[in-house]
Amino acid sequence: MLCFASFGQRCYNLAVSIPRSASESEFTVSGEESGGRLDRVVAAHSPGVSRTRVQELIEAGLILIDGKPAKGSHHVRAGQRVSVHLEPRPQLAATPESIPLEVLYEDSDILAVNKPAGMTVHAGAGVASGTLVNALLGRGQALSTGGDALRPGIVHRLDKETSGIILVAKNDAAHARLAEAFRQRAIEKTYIALLHGLLPEEHGRIGFPISRDPRRRVRMVARPPAKHGFSGKAREALTEWTALLPIGPTTLASVQLHTGRTHQIRVHFSAIKHPVVGDTLYGAPSQLMVGKIALPALGRHFLHAARLAFVQPSTGERIELRAPLPAELREFLHRLSEAAGANFAGIDAALAAYL
Fold it and tell me: Is residue 34 assigned to a domain?
């Protein structure tokens, strides 16, 4: 305990509260917070810490209620003492894992994989393993190293629940040329989507700029541009679509991307009130109703990167690749056609030009 006093002055030893470590905090649940979920209450008391990170800490036993671990879904009560031990995440690293991959094309420069739904492309917040990068390294794959150390070879991405073709660069020269081709919009990307509702025209374009949703950071938002351009951090985005076939209360469509914004197809169709089937994040119901028939939940969104056309970075040869529709999407279309009284042969015919 320290005391500073000039000559002739009396020195008092004052009690000083010693602050907790920046990695530790405690609070008492207030009456207003009583009944709230633990993860939400902790997130509200922890500025700068995402709810995903809070859930990770709870699962690791680093958030206690009155000294005892609890689940994130636990509903807190007024007067309870919550302790938060904010340990840093372990350093992420891209490590090899033995995960099977469906390779659609391979040469000395590039690799094209048919990514399944449910696989994340590379490690990031809350995801340390089971990614496409882990699988590529597990097959002893040489990959470009010019980008982020956690995503060697990755030139573009697909959302976790989107299946289909993704290109991978084996060397830095191929990576640079492919990345430039994407920037110049010289790579043709066609998706198959099943959308809620009946599209109003056979062909259409959506050009709403896209930005991060300020209220829900896991979402994006797309709005018509203001009179004087688009505001904030919104980025130009262009999606073109062709209605292939109406099936009951849905439309099967092919979609071509002219830009590559996060969640672009999903947020654009949600913005025009035709969300992708299964995409609950952007407004689709968890189950599709066909009249009074409720189809089983799809468990993913109905979006598949079916076709990719590009120029081989070394030879200049034009390459076009196609990925077959995953079994779970074909099964869903079968169920939908039966419920809607549609002929599945017509669905196959509509898809033939893309798969």
Answer: yes
Q: Tokens in use for 28?
A: 């008492």
DSSP state of 273: T
Q: What range does the domain containing 145 cover?
A: 89-184
CATH number of 344's domain: 3.30.2350.10
Q: Pick the last residue of a domain from 54, 85, 116.
A: 85
How many whole angstroms separate alpha carbon 138 and alpha carbon 119?
Answer: 15
Chain segment 148-173, per-residue pLDDT in tens? 677 889 999 999 999 999 999 999 99
The whole-angstrom separation of Cα 118 and Cα 115 is: 9
* Dist CA 64 CA 66 (whole Å): 6
- Least Cα distance to 134 among 98, 161, 171 occurs for 98
Amino acid at 166: I
Band of residue 214 on the pLDDT scale cut at 50, 70, 90: confident
pLDDT at 263: 96
pLDDT recorded at residue 220: 93
Residues annotated as part of the active site = 159
By residue count, the chain amounts to 355
Which neighbouring-strand residues pair with 188?
A: 309
